[in-house]
Amino acid sequence: MQGENPYQEPQAELLPKQDRLVLSIHPPRRRDMGAGWRWFVDAARILRSAWLPIAFGIFLLFFLLMAIQSIPVVGYIASQTLFMPFFEAGILMLGLKADEGRRVSFKHAFAGFGEKCPQLLLMGVVMMAALLGLTAVGWVLNYLVFPATTPQIYEVLGFFGTSAGGLDESGDLSGMAGYYVITTLVFLAYFSFFWFSTGLVFLGGKSIPDAITESISGFYKNIVPFIWYGCVAFIVSLLVVGGMTFLMVYLGVFGVAVLIFFLIVMILVFLMSHYSSFRDIYTDTL
Fold first, then answer.
1. Residue 213's CB: how many other CB atoms inside 10 A?
2. Model-level pTM?
3. Which of 24, 97, 164, 218 is within CB 3.0–4.6 Å of 102 for a Cys-Cys bond?
4. All structural domains of the chain with their residue ranges
């Protein structure tokens, strides 16, 4: 054909553009108490729609998490802070792809290592600093409020040397109870900082300060459904472990297999409910 250059670059795109799903995020909305249960129901629906790639992708993330934890000295805290935004981003992307009816691949579990990697790494650094700082605050508060019993509590918990076996006569149960109350409040603050912040950075394109601020707002606006969410998770865990333990005793190896299967399903649904709660609170699509 005249006029055509055989060496001309092709005009059509050889590969289709890979569109990255981004949610339209609005300020957090308040949900009713029943949302705590609906998040699990929605998570089960999403998992059922693409259970194999989701399960395999999360398995790979857990394998990487355990590999990081095996690093001496710093492995555990690095896995719970520096790596955690990447872990959460993978779960969010798997959930989003399945929820939108797109093709789901186990490779989506590693979506956090793409274009948002620097922001997520910085988020991990912020999480590490917050965890260390809030832990120090908890220790100081416990010592100021319960100065007589705090050293004994830490000894009992194994922080300093070998446990003496319990509190002596100078310590009382109120000190131990106070320790758990203060510790719970401190870590509740930590979870409110970061429960939604990864999603807001990764899927919503927010800056880290804005993401943390909106995560705190979304968490405490929905403290009632979150309490119910925690109660449901606790009750289901007891039922699964208790019921499957019964089967394990009476059915032997088959019971162990059933126990492992239900534990895996329970963990996958719980992890995917993180995506469901995020989408319910920050979008209008659930």
1. 15
2. 0.78
3. 97
4. 35-282
